[in-house]
Amino acid sequence: MTAESRQPPAPAPAETAIIVENLHKSFGSLEVLRGVSLTARKGDVVAIIGGSGSGKSTMLRCINFLETPTSGRIVVNDEEIAIRPDGRPANRRQIERIRTRLGMVFQAFNLWTHRTLLENVIEVPVHVLKTPRTQAIARALALLDRVGLADKADTFPAFLSGGQQQRAAIARALAVDPTVMLFDEPTSALDPELVGEVLSVIRDLAAEGRTMLIVTHEMKFAREVADHVVYLHQGRIEEEGPPERVFGAPQSARLRQFLQTVG
Ligand code: ADP
Ligand code: MG
């Protein structure tokens, strides 16, 4: 067989940042995720949209094992995370290792309130990753500078606006140099005038090739930054595709209706 006649090689595993395959999650008798599959290659920005209660947060929480999936496959950075059929937490150490590769930013800015921004950002590098303190501080200051908070390093969260706190939360998530950033509605708790500054930071991260999964209600933003859009409905992917198609020519009636309601 000549080289030309061979099948094109499957993408090298190194190009894939996250694989989710047939993910199921139930809470008691409530089946919240009913077989969700998605793949993000390195550098991909995947936007996850869907109505309230469709399972968006549960999906992100399963990916970093804040919830234990009921079944399915999750691979982060070529490492498959064992999911036990009995629903008990899988290998603790593995989960801790995986978590340090996933930077998660939640809806509510959950900074440690009794610590300055700098202390917030260095916490995990110093105490979990055992990064030397001076090195962690230098990196934290650079990250705070990146999100426009260089002059707030010694400030406590309570003295900052919601937008500033959320930008600090992004700096903190970046401090572990994550393979993938997970954002769960990062702007939905903000006053409208503060949304733009946070989206702008996320937009910059997308532009520099960070792999990201973003749950958002900001459709204009999703359309602009995402490579791929996933619409969840009742725990299943109802429709997915490139943003131009999902937003410009939605096939499913449910998605069309959803897009009308969110504007
Ligand atoms: P979304 O983020 O799309 O709004 P969620 O993933 O938060 O949806 O929730 C999906 C469904 O799962 C909802 O019906 C919610 O009430 C339920 N749910 C989420 N977390 C839990 C939990 N820890 N225990 C029981 N039910 C939950
Ligand atoms: Mg949610």
TrEMBL record:
Keyword presence, Nucleotide-binding: yes
Q: Name one GO cellular component term.
A: plasma membrane
Keywords in alphabetical order, please. Answer: ATP-binding, Cell membrane, Membrane, Nucleotide-binding, Transport
Q: Say which domain of life the source belongs to.
A: Bacteria
**Domain (ABC transporter) ranges:** 18-259
Per the record, membrane topology reads: Peripheral membrane protein
Its annotated compartments are: Cell membrane
Which InterPro entries does its entry note?
AAA+_ATPase, ABC_ATPase_HisP-typ, ABC_transporter-like_ATP-bd, ABC_transporter-like_CS, MetN_ABC_transporter-like, P-loop_NTPase
In its keyword annotation, does this UniProt entry include Transport?
yes
Family membership noted in the UniProt record:
Belongs to the ABC transporter superfamily.
Record PANTHER family:
AMINO ACID IMPORT ATP-BINDING PROTEIN (PTHR43166), L-CYSTINE IMPORT ATP-BINDING PROTEIN TCYN (PTHR43166:SF35)
UniProt protein name: Amino acid ABC transporter ATP-binding protein, PAAT family
